[in-house]
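Table S7 (text form). Paired inputs.
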Amino acid sequence: MRCFYQGRHREDSSLTGHNGFVSFTIPDLGIAFRAQFSGSKDECEYAGLLALLEFVELNPHLFKNKRIEIFGDNYKVISQVNQQVKPPKDLEPYLNMAVGYKTKIPFTLKWIPDNENLAQDSLAV
């Protein structure tokens, strides 16, 4: 099952103090999620991925006997989770959470160009 995630960061904060958004979509299930988040560009990206992984973990009946393919457009974060590149110290907690999900959920994580990321539609501001 194809799943897409994204995180966006902006320089200014909203009235609520958040400076970013996280999003994921699972087209086969008709699911789209969007929430505000505060953090750096990479922290927003990790938060989008972690929100998707938490959803998958909490809804195993939707993913039973399905191959889970996750797509995102931040090459740096994807390379870190796929253990091709070591993250900076401040991102290690996020990486550890994402890698922890790999022990519970069999998924692949792949990079796609921004214009192919279906999660970006729910981030239009």
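Next pair, protein 2 of 2.
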Amino acid sequence: MRKLLITIDGPAGAGKTTVSKALADRLGYIYVDTGALYRGVAYEARAAGISTDDDQNLEKLCQRLNLKFVNRGAGTLLMSGNTNITDFIRTPEMSMMASAVSARSVVRQALLEVQRKMGEQKSAVFEGRDMGTVVFPDADIKFFLTADLKARASRRYQELANIKPQPLEEVEKDMKRRDENDSSRHIAPLKPAADAVLIDSSHISAEAVIEKMMTHIQQAFDRD
């Protein structure tokens, strides 16, 4: 059975993380949360006092950063050097900063090679926003997972409840603004690849989404 490189793109709150992790577990594949890499850059940029539009210093920052994923029991941790920054990158502030730095070409170029290096061995599920369009245009299977704004905002609201509670109205407003930023940016805008399988998760469970994906994956295995 050949190894596959699978990409799952889509907007915030569509359920990409839950689905990507579960799909990787089912297949015995590596799960890579590429959005966490941009959040890591945003976190370190804020810590260094670097503006999200300061390309010169963002480039220098990326050159010296050492971001890596480490599997630890219950899940995957994002390390910056020897520091675990996993719990610090999931705030609304980091979401907006990550959206801003991801629009900078110097940041995207720096992380592009990092991501492609991770995918060389295949047997991996890459979650992000431009995995199937830019980073891995030749991926074996591409999915684009979406959902309507209210459903996505409700999910994110629940996720933030134990991290940094925020009124539902603010969550929806922030998410709408991020959607607009990600979809309209000149560099690697959020959009499905021409050959991506589109799945709407607005009214179905994560398990139902995974079953739909497994159907397409099994078809790929059957063609071998």
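The longest strand covers residues 67-72.
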